[in-house]
Amino acid sequence: MNAPATPKYAAYVCSGCGIGDKLNVPALEKVATKEGKMALVKTHEFLCNAAGVQMIRDDIANEGVTHLCIAACSRRAKAEAFQFAGVAMSRANLREGVIWVVAEGADHDEVRQEMAEDYVRMGCAEVKKMAAPAGNVKESSSKKILVVGGGMSGMTAALAAADAGYEVVLVEKTGALGGFANNLYKRVPFNGPYAEPQEVGAGETAAQVTGNSKIKVYLNSTVTETAGAPGRFAVKIAAESGSISEELCGAIVQATGFTTYPLDKLPELGGGQANVVDQVGLEALAKSANGGAIKRADGQEVKSVVFVQCAGQRGHGGNGSGAHLDYCSGHCCATSIKQAMYFKDQNPDVDTVVMYSDLRVPGMGEDFYRSAQQKGVIFTKAKVNGVTGGNSCKVDFKDLILDEDVTTDADLVVLATGQVPTAGVDLDEWTATVTAAESGDAAAVEKKSELQKISVLNLNYRQGPDMPQFKYGFADSHFICFPYETRRTGIYAAGPTRRPMDMFQATEDATGAALKAIQTVENVAQGRAALPRAGDLSFPKARLEGCTQCKRCTVECPFGAIDEDEKRFPVFNEERCRRCGTCMGACPVRVISFENYSCDTVGMQVKAVNVPDEFEEKPRILILACENDAYPALDMAGLQRMTYSAFVRAIPVRCLGSVNTIWITDALNSGYDGVMMMGCKRGDEYQCHFVKGSEMAFYRMSKIGDTLKQLGLEEERVQTQEVAITDNTRVVKLINDYVAQLTEMGPSPMKGFG
Amino acid sequence: MTASIATNQTILVVGGGIAGMTAALEAAECGKQVILAEKTPTLGGRTSLLYRYFPKMCHPTCGLEINLKRIRGNPNVRVMTMTEVAAVSGSRGDYNVTLKIKPRYVTEACTGCGDCGKAVTAEVPNPANYGLDKIKAAYLPHGMAYPQRFVIDPSIVGTADGEAAKAACKFGAVDLAMQEETVEFKVGSVVWATGWRPFDAAKIQPYGYDRFDNVITSLEFERLADPRGPTGGKIVRPGDGKEAKNIAFIQCAGSRDENYLRHCSRICCMATLKQTQYVREAWGEEAKSTVYYIDIRAIDRFEDFYANVWNDATVSFIKSKVARIALNEENGNPVLHGVNTEGYHRYATEHDLVVLAVGMEPEVTGVKLPDDIVLDSSNFIEGSKSGGMFGAGSAASPLDVNRAVQSATAASLKAIQVIHKTASTEASA
Amino acid sequence: MSKKQYAFYPGCSSQAKASADNFVRSIDVVCEKLDVQLNEIPDWNCCGASIGYGEGGELPRLALSARNLALAETNFAGQDMVSVCPACWLASRETAERLHESNSLLAETNEALKEAGLTFKGEVKARHFVEVLIEDIGWDKMKSQVVKPLDGLKFAGYVGCQTNRPFGIVGESFENPQYLDKMIETCGGEAVAYDQKVTCCGGALAFSEPEKAQKQIRDIVESAYDHGADIIVTPCQLCQANVEIYQSEINKKQGTKFNMPVVYYSQLMTLAYGGTARQAGLDGQLIKAEKLEKIAGK
Amino acid sequence: MTTANPKYKNSFLKEVEANVEDGHMVKMCMQCGVCAGSCPLGPHWEHSPQKIFMMIRAGKREEVLSSDSMWMCTSCYNCIVRCPRKLPITHIMHGLANYAHRLGLAPQGQPTRDIAKLFWNNIIKTGRVNELTFSLAMYFKDGFGQGIKNAMAMQGVGLGLVKAKRLNPMEILGGHSCKDKSGIHKMIAKAREIEDRRKGFAQ
Prior knowledge:
Distance between the termini of chain B: 30 Å
CATH superfamily of the largest domain in chain B: FAD/NAD(P)-binding domain
Strand order of the largest sheet of chain B: 3-2-1-11-24
CATH architecture of the largest domain in chain D: Orthogonal Bundle
Number of strands of chain B: 24
Distance between the termini of chain D: 15 Å
Order of helices and strands of chain D: HHHHHHHHHHH
CATH class of the largest domain in chain B: Alpha Beta
Oligomer: heterotetramer
Number of helices of chain D: 11
Number of domains of chain B: 3
Helix content of chain B: 10-25%
CATH topology of the largest domain in chain D: Fumarate Reductase Iron-sulfur Protein, Chain B, domain 2
CATH topology of the largest domain in chain B: FAD/NAD(P)-binding domain
Largest sheet of chain D: none
Low-confidence stretches of chain B: none
CATH architecture of the largest domain in chain B: 3-Layer(bba) Sandwich
């Protein structure tokens, strides 16, 4: 819905929770009326209770209030009570932000009151520049789910989405569904009693997929182009035959699986030699034996077998030169246990030895381990120094328990090698190649088309054709609480392309990814944002007439949400957007804004603060705090009644990435003595849910030095800090130290000029 | 409350930890109606009592803030705290559930101002710190508590303290007459995200958790390291407040042991590796962590975290299940007795503090569950006979947070499928 | 009132003038006071003890214990078989349980038993006398009989191994069992806390590996002294013998001055129940328990 | 039976499973070492139980059976109650010792082995222990001269026990005994015969 033609502004001051005792509320009302220019100003002794909220509702209904500033507690408190559809609302934080953090006692009454009055000024100034986001409802958007990859993960995702009532398009590059599972004789058990291998069931699942009317399967096909955005992905699917089909999809599940680490890269463990196989090689032997005696390639019955765990895995912690995979593939211990059972179940006299460095069978896998021991499988903690294949294989190893070097022989040696993800193109490599290609490097041009061939999605995003890869080439999320939160809205990786995993986890993972895909198409239909600003209806708008085509927004957007049209103007794909505002922070001409968050909503707050002149010795410090970590930390400092300087004025921002340098220069121009920015941890282990926000802020501020010099200001007047949500104690110290430092430096020379 | 709050198109999620919040939110953000029932006074569960996560060393509170914001902003989720499931009857698509709501003695009118807490003198063991310290008997569970409403401990109801709390509240939010309530309604599907509890370390008698002050659990250690914890983040001994620099971590404390928990709890190895880094951060080169283990289960990409800790000079690893702990009566140091099985070396080693990496026991262990539920041999929830109820997160299997959330997301869709089937059959009928 | 009836398996050391002769005398008094009647199994045989394994092997040892169990079954049908000796109890209970678990083993054992004209039906339950006291008699009744509380005496309750492991008394911890301390307190004595409560005394290896065993014994006695005990109390014959007998040896070899009496819980009870030094078998101590004799003399 | 044992093959493990009391549990050990740390005589072992289990799996037949480690068992049962895999370790140790002894591979002059033999013969003779003859037998097991020394060394104790009426000199003339000695002898002979048959010992 759109706000009525004539906006009406109202402010509501709560006098509860001690606000009335510690502050001069009538004075606050006066500020709201006189300076805030609020048409309607009311005080309530208990604003968040039913009566208080009803009062506001009535004003909206009867007085035509369209914009309201609630001067009470933190925006993080009583959020449910203060929910009013269709009106713009700001919150002036008088409780957590003022009375709970300013020192007790009459000596502080003046500064406490000044602080509160400023927050009221800021709240009123902010709301005047806000509009209630209407949201961009797109009922017509596509709710079809594209699943890339027809293995266990892909098939499970397809069925999961179909069973929830959604159309699915499944693209598989080979001629059959089933993927890696088709290689297996049996699988590790999915459920109790975790004692015996189970039937794989890939065939049954494939039959369910092909028999499901909601699922359209493309075999021998690959995705050659993915254009558009969530709700409107235009997908080109090319069959081997060369025919191209087009599908309009709403969201994508990437279940492109893995390949096994090449055996021939492990000569030190006998890789490539006769009768030395990897786990998938053994599955083949077991399949052809089909319950009978397992025979080697040369047809000889296997009477003794050694399993070498962590073969070319876990770096130096595993077996092999250490120059292979640094990670553990997680499933291999259970897989070798299962494979040893193939032998024992067929003939208990077969000697089966599993050489491990750490046996990793978490959860109920412990029962599977016990079951193998019950069957007589021997487990040895060992470091394998070398394997030679041939008619009688030799395994040189150190028994770490008996602490001695031994050689044992075996008819067959099985190397537990790792999973290598199939996640398409590495974007760093892509960017490098493209840059080189654009500068006319012929080889790069060649390489670019090679890369396009290995791409699994061929996205036409300017950031590259596939999902950004996390460590070791897995298309995983960077976040622990949000395993499906990646940098490509509406695209979710599932199964071993996301993280090394076994088949059971892969099916679970695929089900989860299917949900996220479904959620995406529902969000798009309602114009809602995805995590972390789930449900946000606002989205960035640009006044293109003011745009200088500098491309900063398109380059800096962490989510690849912004394309460029032929005239190099930015094209916003709001369905890809996470509403972080990084584009807004990047824009030098300030043409990008959200309905409820813009250069003005913050800029006006900065300007609204009443900055005393240099003689009053009351410095003013602007704090721009990340709304997800630093601002809650400030709130919790209040909750614990810690005290910090009443000279600071804190404004929550969506992300430091959204901080536009104009706010800083405005603040300094209007006589603030310092500006402190508080954002999340940056670097490899960054905690910013908008990926580069904190990084950006530090980068941009490093560039602000010259501006400061022009203003004749010390660099210390702008400070950027990493603050974690648990830093309630530290944040107080940061503030007080900074205030002390600025007091030391003396008032800003800009005072009075603003 | 009436049955009308829910229909067979509603999903009930039991448990308000990170798995339960996730299951509820993912469904709600797909447009489904969800009731989220939590046993304690606040959402957040075990993760809200963790200081940091492995392997990123980031703060669980950060994710909690995002999830709470999602819940505040989503009318599809109805949160019920201090609420337990008393009974579930019916089957897939059509369950009748009975919930019991314990009295909080504080109504929705609470603003979290804290006056009642100031008025009360009695103190109770602080649940947010596993009882390592005390809090007022009228309290906010912790800084991130949601709903942000105080709780009055039953122990002061009917006492002068209780009356003092009542008198102190300007908003009349304290209701000492509050009684346990029972509500019944229909739901289509139930997701059990009931989580886990630390295995009772006192049962592991050779380690003397019940006899020695300086033998604590990994969860208690987590609170010691947390700036919001009982020691303000100082790693000191509960016994005598002495700085704990030389710390032993004993793995598989309860797990992988047929006398206690037959399963591997999966998270304890990584949790210990993480905690060795707390020790390092606290004491630098003076720190000394010794990890006594059977197998280090740093699965998949966590391996590199293990590799880094392995290369940390302040941390050493001994492949050994510690046989027993004795006490040095002079200095209160626990003395660990055992054998390093890599080559058979006996040890009798003194440490300042011993941290038992206790295993995960399903919270539902010993709880009477609906007959429809299917449990495995360790009481993890495999699913339900009629296929309308699902385990999620560490209620389904011992999982780390990342996997628990993944599992909860999957469970959420399974619940949605049940709702969808019911709806479509009703439509066609 | 009618007495509780049990088939009694005394064991070799409890015979007249055997190493635990004094023990059984006190047991008799306790039974008398608590209305317990122990019916000695006719012609019972040695249980094979723990050391029997070396030569005895598996089945012969099972047969030995099965014979006692069979005799109990036939002579005192319906009664539990009670031992005062941990080794006897352990062997009997273990046999009963293993034969219960394995039919083949039961068949083989009975095949052997037939030679002695017996069969084991697997009905009788093998119990320890301490179980009878705690589970059948109860703490209240044990306390009710106390007329001469052992005021002011400090005891180190030494549980040792086989009364405690692998079976132990129901509900007790293997590492820190409480019942013996509770018995001491029931008799009015003070139980000191010390760290060798369940340390092994060396068992049968006291004979074959004297140095190693005596190291164990030294630890136990030393800790008892360090924690202020006057007397060590134990439920086990082998513990009693080893810990008492070898103190002089250790003194001789290591120059210690150990002189710590080692008595049985039943001796404390006898005295607390008003029994004489003779009834309590205090004359059986190698290291005289003067403090107890004084109380008996009161 | 005494074929050379290939390394890391099942043969010796299988032999142990067939012929050693509770030997079928050896394969269940997960090498945590709690038994090794729990044994009171641990410091005197050459090989800890858990290590012996590994040696069995590694096929070290001679080293295991000729080791005197299992003869160090005091039957304190600490290992059994702490083992996370519930291996009946004490029984397995007893079983291994007995098996080694029967095969004649157990170390010669291993004192516990000798005493075990004396003890068994002592109890089988009459069905009950004769503590006096047992003690004397022990003193004289290493020959007369040593026996006198041993006896003298323990004289004080002996006399003390006699004075305390806890050792009866008259037992030299037979002492306590079961009535049905012959029945017991036949029973034991039979049991041994069955076990030998089962375990494949020559009659």
